[in-house]
Amino acid sequence: MSYPKPWMSYADQLNQLIGRGMLVTDRARALDYLERIGYYRLSGYWFAFRERSGPLCLVDEHGRKPKKVREERVALDAFRAGTTFQNAVDLYVFDKQMRLLVMDALERIEVALRVDVSHTLGEFDRFAYLKPELFHHDFSTKLDKDTGVTRHHDWLGKHAQLIGRSKEDFVRHSRTKYGFPLAIWVACEVWDFGTLSTLFNGMREAEQDTIANQYGVSNGRVFATWLRSLNYLRNVCAHHSRLWNRNIVDQPKLPSTAELPWVAPFESDTHARARCFLLLKITRHLLNVVNPRSSWPERMKTHLLAFPDLSHLGLNLAGMGAPAGWETAW
Description:
The chain is mainly α. It folds into two domains: 10-83, no CATH class; 92-329, no CATH class. 53% of the residues lie in helices and 4% in strands. The protein contains 16 helices and four strands. The protein has helices spanning 10-19, 27-36, 39-46, 85-122, 137-140, 151-165, 169-178, 184-187, 193-202, 205-214, 220-238, 264-267, 270-273, 276-290, 296-305, 326-329, and strands spanning 50-52, 56-57, 71-72, 75-79. It has a two-stranded antiparallel ribbon with strand order 1-4. α3 packs across α4 (85-122), α4 (85-122) packs across α11 (220-238) and α9 packs antiparallel against α11. It is globular, with a radius of gyration of 24 Å.
């Protein structure tokens, strides 16, 4: 299928939005935003402002209704009454500032977890990351049916790439003075969040639990899903992608409410578990261990309370998965 949409000038893009019902009070300013941010990026924010069709009953290829009837509302081109171009810009700016706050917290968490993993494994062996026997069977000896290698082997390849690309002085110094391999407490400093979370997922249960317990989570496998989800969150933020109402693909598992009472609103709410507010709560929980005196929780709360007034379009923090009264429990 060929791509049907033609190139459009900025003026034509804006005229199309106006023709679909979007209010533009300052045309020059709106054109400036389209030139600097781009129609396609902003469209991810005004998508939520579009009218929806009535429920459509989906049928199979023979025109028959399935046994379990699904209904779907389709986004129309027209915007809801009262939609303004500035509404989309305000939501875009809110989302951008939220991503910057998230990255600030995740940097601290990532650094702390590098220490946790390298210190825990380093007690067994200075080069523990090279030792299959120090990892879980599924990670270290089970062959992938598609690649024919273990996940540990695959991880070592990515680790080697990070070492090879590194221009850090400490890598050059250690390699020159001591040669390869690098001790784990040196090597860990080149790991990104994905490399770190993958290695944690491959660790033995006893070592996973040891680290998870430091963060108030008894089950290291649950904690491993937290790290995978935070890696997903980090990638969204690092690539400047829309976050506020994104569907979280890699959702974290939750411990019991007896262990962490704050998870209660998310247990039976599938929408909330698939939105970023839960990941913000996890970030806040971890940061409280890493740096309990940090001002980040208050800064994030202040930012969330500054969510743009989009009540005329039916939008609020619930679109992020925030439960009613979230600010009290924050």
